[in-house]
Amino acid sequence: MDILSRTEIEKREYEWLAPYAMKSAETKGRQYKEKEHPYRSVYQRDRDRIVYSTAFRRLEYKTQVFVNHEGDYYRTRLTHTIEVAQIARTIARALRLNEELVEAIALAHDLGHTPFGHAGEDILASLMAKHGGFDHNTHGLRVVDFLEKRYAAFNGLNLTQEVRRGIIRHASPFDKKRSGDIKGAQLLEIQVVDIADEIAYDNHDLDDGLKSGLLTEKDFEGIQMWEEAVTSVEKKNLNVDEEIRRSQIIRHLIDVQVTDIVDNALKQINKLRINSLGCLSKTNTKKIVIFSEKMECKRSSLKKNLKKKLYEHYRVVRMANKAARFLKSLFEIYCDNPKQLQPQAFEKISTYGKYRAICDYLAGMTDRYALDQYKKFFEPYERV
Ligand code: MG
Asked: Which CATH class is domain 6-174+185-378?
């Protein structure tokens, strides 16, 4: 038997994938020309580059909602990323989309995240407001285009246009400067990762919130989607312990949402008569991979409750504020005297300017590295 070659994989995609799926043979390619691999598709190769990047490894010590040292069992940005990839691949496979492209985008989708979750992103955005701004999607593209150093011939990972588009998701001013072709309708593979991201974080934040004790089941009484999940679980599992009960409820919630997305996306595809990749451009910016109205409505009351009871919980607000204070102080002391930066970070000032170089350095930190840096600067007896 012969080895399954890249060209054979490319050929099989036309037999196996839907007509509206992105085929790896049709990639718009990479910025720097490279010889392609004998038995890995372009997107498999992108996925592997992402997994071996420094930014990917750092996801392990970056916060989702709970700051890293609050406990070992909460989601981190790495476990969140793996859950997004799992949900996105399930949806992609059911819809006969390009699972390898979806996996690469999912694994890369949060590479631009700062330490301390959205609190970190918000504070960097405000500190950088007059210096070109900051958001995690744009920064994610910056990470894979410039900041990762793994190849002699170029900076960054030299990913395909489709994966880059998936990382940026929404065209931003930064990206328009770099590449003219990042606009128009989104590939279905990109839309799948977007929705998988939402499903993953809503449900794992609910799970972590309950596990931490910041939320209780009582907080969700009267919320239709929650109550349906409870009823379904109680039908099958009577007298189970709290942990199993919670896992089963979360499992049910994810399953109904994924199933709704698959069914509804297929309905949209049929309704809009999408039977080729080209048809997607006719949909303009209308999203195809969306929840049914009924599910959207149920989700919105669950999400509202999660916001009120978890994201606005005084302890979560404290964690976020504390984190923002650390980062702001670090940003300010580095700006006051950039010579305090590590040499590798300092050198970048000549290329990117003081503010961007400091912002890149801070955005790349893990929670605990940022906390260590803070201690070095502000605790008199700490060694610098
Ligand atoms: Mg995410």
From this structure: mainly alpha
